Amino acid sequence: MAKLTRQEIREKTIKIIHNCVPELEGVELTEDSVVNTDMGMDSMNFILVICKLEAEFDVKIPDRLWNKLSTLGQVIDAIEKYSK
Amino acid sequence: MHIYQNFSELVRTWEGDDSPALIYGDTRKSLTRDALAKEIFREEAAIRSQGPGNEFIVTDHTPRTIIRIFASVMAGHDVVLADEGMTDESLMALVRLVRPTWICASDEELADLLIRTAASYSQEAGSAGLSLLPPLAPWEEGRVIFFTSGTTAMSRAVVLTSRSLMASSWSGQSMLPCGPGDTLLSILPLSHVFGFVCSLLWGLSYGAAIALGRGVRHMLEDCMHFKPTILSAVPSVAQLLMMRGSLNSELKTLLVGAAPLPEASVRMLRQMGIHVYLGYGLTETSSGIAITQDLDNPYDLYPCPGADIRIEPDGEISVSTPCLMEGYYDFGAEGGLTPVEGGRFYTGDLGLLDKQGALHLTGRKKDMLVLPDGTKIFCPEYEAELADLLGTADIALILKNNRPVLAIGQTPPAARNRLLALIESFNRQKARSGQIADILVTELPLPRTATGKIKRWEILNLRD
User: Fold this and answer.
1) Which residues of chain A make contact with B88, given a CB cutoff of 8 A?
2) Which of A25, B337, B350, B371 is the most buried (most CB within 10 A)?
3) Which of B264, B232, B73 is nearest to B165 (CA)?
4) DSSP code for B315
5) Under DSSP, is residue B380 helix (H, G, I), strand (E, B) or coil?
6) CA B92 remoteness from chain centre
7) CA A4, CA A25: separation in Å to the nearest integer?
8) Nearest-angstrom CA–CA distance, B89 and B352
9) SS3 (DSSP) at B323
10) End of a domain among B361, B388, B411?
């Protein structure tokens, strides 16, 4: 499978966040948006989102790093870094 | 039913016992009580040979970490438990504060980072580490130090003993028995006393097998994977597992702590055939001091044996219990241990005892604002009313310069005037002394604990 561009990862990630957290539907998300326990996303939703992202992009982000992901940009960085 | 005096007495009873103690991993490997005891004794001997000291353990759900906690305490080391979910910066700050002799973390990269942090002690000042704890006699077990969640003040270090933790396990067992044949799924952080006692020690003490959760990634699958009969959880996790259909059919008992579970959730879980128990306790009391029974009213809390619960004249709940902490520990150079005066702990929670002796929680004492003229405002009531009016639940009432001020989170500055107009209409319905004097608007969410409780003291540092 061809390596996804950052923009493609961003678009897919935003779509997954919107699917998992209906409260965020219609909210514009940028790479600076704080997505962990912010903007209506509680820690449980964040866990769901990361699980979905790992499955979607076939990556495994180390457990220890989950709490360090704060902005959408950091989430995309982690997906890029741990992509197989 | 036996009350174990300390970890050593408990672990000795496991020798020759082939029942499963720990179940873990993708293949559900099993470690018998006998094998666990042997591992703990081996580790204890190794720790003793290194001499006295104290230990900083970053907890996770691996047999190695559990063995290390038991062995260190039994070897007479004071042990500070920290959560693997904390950021590196927070863990490093804790290490600087604690100044441990040894550091234990399963993640090698993290262990290396913390050891390097510890190596810089000589250049650090301001913390006495654990050196101000009263010395232990050679036969005594080490103390276990937990940090409070910090709802109304900075997080505090609570000094517990293996004796108080074992007493807590016993009182839990008296109210909600578990035994051989039960599997207790452990997914709560072991660095929190509710997780340590109610998802580990309680089951290990009275015959249940402990299934060790495989981490956040598998949280939704672990019930189906391990098929527990008992689960201890905080409300948000319990609700998530319920709503996602992640609870297994073998699950018969759900113990919920840290915050109340909404009645609708209790009802749904009962319809699924799960008995729901809600616990009330504090880090300072080594976990639960009262627990609900599986009765019509799911919020009637019945005191655990040995817990002498009283309601003070101002409505505050106080308790005397064998599970009480030794005291708070202040890591400052002039600090040390502050013992509990008179053996009675004032919880800061408000409540009442009904005619049947059941305890009912009504709020936090620090949720009450007392104005200079003596007017008392019970914040949760005001906040519920204001949340409806403003259309946001991210609000908190605080006292600033002796005046009630409403903090509103996740709101753009442009909304300020609209909100002020709404507050004005709210104030018109209130006596002058109880009116809101000002608002503090921030785009950030208001600071909360992991269980969603507002951290009022932190709001004072926010800027409009």
Assistant:
1) 68
2) B350
3) B73
4) S
5) helix
6) 21
7) 24
8) 41
9) coil
10) B361
Tens of pLDDT, residue by residue over B33-67, are: 999 999 999 999 999 999 888 999 999 999 999 99
Q: Clarify whether residues B402 and B275 are in a common domain.
A: no
A67–B107 CB contact, under 8 Å: no
Same structural domain, B292 and B411: no
CA-to-CA distance for A16 and A38, rounded, in angstroms?
16
SS3 assignment, position B244: coil
Q: What is the distance in angstroms between the Cα of B195 and the nearest Cα belonging to chain A?
A: 17
Both tokens assigned to A82: 């741990």
Average pLDDT score over residue span A45-57: 87
Domain of B349, in residue numbers: 7-361
Residue B431, helix vs strand vs coil: coil
Extract the tokens encoding B139.
Answer: 């036969």
Q: Give the number of other CB atoms < 10 A from CB of residue B298.
A: 20
Q: Return the CATH number at A44.
A: 1.10.1200.10
Query: B143 with B78: CB under 8 angstroms?
Result: yes
Chain B interface disruption, residue of A41, A59, A63, A82, most B CBs within 10 A: A63
pLDDT at B373: 67
Contact list, A28 vs chain B (CB under 8 Å):
none
DSSP structural state of residue B179: -
* Mean pLDDT, range B285-313, rounded to an integer: 91
Residue among B231, B163, B250, B172 at smallest CA distance from B206: B172
- Average the pLDDT over B229-237 and give the result: 93
Nearest CA in chain A to B236: A44
CB distance from A74 to chain B under 8 Å? no
- Give the structural domain span for A14: 6-82
**Whether residue B344 is found in the same domain as residue B385:** no
Compute the distance between CA of residue A79 and CA of residue B1 in angstroms, rounded to an integer: 52
DSSP code, position B444: S
pLDDT tens profile B88-99: 888 998 999 899
**pLDDT score for B152:** 46
How many independent structural domains does chain A possess?
1
CATH number at residue B238: 3.40.50.12780
Q: What is the ipTM of this complex?
A: 0.71
User: Token pair 């599970």 is at which residue?
Assistant: B323
Taking residues A33-57, what's their average pLDDT? 76
> Residue B359 carries which side chain, given as an amino acid letter?
L
Tell me if B1 is assigned to some domain. Answer: no
Closest residue to A64, CB basis, from B107, B236, B452: B107
Using CA atoms in the order B235, B237, B242, B244, what is the torsion angle rounded to 10 degrees? 150
Contact residues, chain A, for B216 at CB < 8 Å: 47, 50, 63, 66
**C-alpha pair distances (Å), B204 with each of B172, B352, B373:** 13, 34, 54
Rounded to a whole number of angstroms, the distance from the CA of B306 to the nearest CA of chain A is 36
